[in-house]
Amino acid sequence: MAKRYAATKNKLLHCGRCCTALSWVNMKSVLFTILLFIAGCTEEEMDMRTSEDKINYINQLSYSDDQKNIEKIAFYLADSDEKVLSMAAFGLGYLGAREYIPNLVALLKSESNQVVSMACSGLAQMVDKSDSDLLESIHPLFRHEFNLARISAIEVIEKIGHKSSIDYLVPLFAGATSGEKARIVSAFCEIGDKKVLPILEEYHSEVESMDFSQPVKGGTRGSNLHPTQLKTIVEMAISKIGK
Hints:
This protein is an all-alpha fold. The protein is 65% helix and 0% strand. It starts with a helix and ends with a helix.
């Protein structure tokens, strides 16, 4: 009788633990559903579970060019997957969601190279000359270990076009790759400070001594450019700044 009682008790305890665990899982599911409803998500959106699904969904929202999708994208800034978070940051920039500039600036302190690069790239999509107050957050990225983060930072600088950035760009130029130098030259061109002309003229001479016979290859963002492309970029900058 005692054994039967003990066995029954163990079954009840096991059942209780299962029910408690299931209740917690259900509670989390309900909370997640509530958050999605608050964000204005549809039933289809709430069915998404994988990061790949979320990324594809964010891309669809971003490239729709519909401002009504901004809040739906912003919901994923709280996602635990850095790839999802990165795509959301870029998507907000692509749609010009300037109200989320502070959120993207905060992401520049992330330990994830991808998050920093994509958040900065998102900023580059929507900043303008009125955003010089952001420079103190952007200039330090010139020392970032990830080259795409550095290039994204240069793109932001180019859009803002403030002369104070020259003092940060010039030291970076000497040790930069040709892909980075092309972006810096574009930034020089946009800023338009004549004091960079000697640097550009010296680099133009360097480019002219390169091997132009090498085949033109397709590259990825930030990769080295063909001398023909570099020459065109530098000559355009010299012409514009020198006027």
